[in-house]
Specification:
Number of helices: 3
Largest sheet: 3 strands, antiparallel
CATH class of the largest domain: Alpha Beta
Length: about 140
């Protein structure tokens, strides 16, 4: 399956990205003295992609378990090399879930399936980055 996404240079360090469906995003750099336009940093986009991919799958799995999900917040902490190309070396994902009728082992299994079986971003990164995760479960 082949899919196409694109970015277009706007000016300075600002790019406009478009996905295969026409949705747009501004990609840029951190603001500074000489940089006036900002957008999401590409490295942050990678982390956000990982979080969104795994969160999407966790939600779907919990729904299939017929449990009621009230809230899901997913955060990543990461470490990168200190020299170019500043590759990620470690990424830790923390899931904070509020649900009714969901047991910790069910959530643990949902996360495991999302990360190892369904999330394409996780499965792409796992070959070169040390990935880990944990969770907090609040019951309603």
């Amino acid at each position: 399956m082949s899919e196409t996404v694109e970015i277009n240079w706007v000016r300075e360090e600002m790019f406009a990205g478009r996905d295969r469906y026409g949705n747009s995003i501004v990609i840029g750099s951190t603001p500074g003295d000489e940089i006036q336009f900002t957008g999401l940093k590409p490295s942050d986009l990678l982390l956000l992609s990982l979080l969104a991919c795994s969160a999407y799958d966790v939600v779907k799995i919990i729904e299939k378990q017929r449990r009621r999900l009230y809230a899901l917040r997913v955060a990543a902490t990461s470490e990168q090399q200190t020299h170019p190309p500043y590759a990620f070396t470690k990424i830790h994902v923390h899931y904070h879930v509020t649900a009714h009728g969901l047991k910790p082992e069910q959530l643990r299994r949902a996360i495991e399936l999302a990360e190892t079986k369904y999330c394409s971003v996780y499965n792409t990164l796992k070959h070169g980055v040390e990935l880990s995760s944990d969770f907090e479960l609040e019951r309603e």
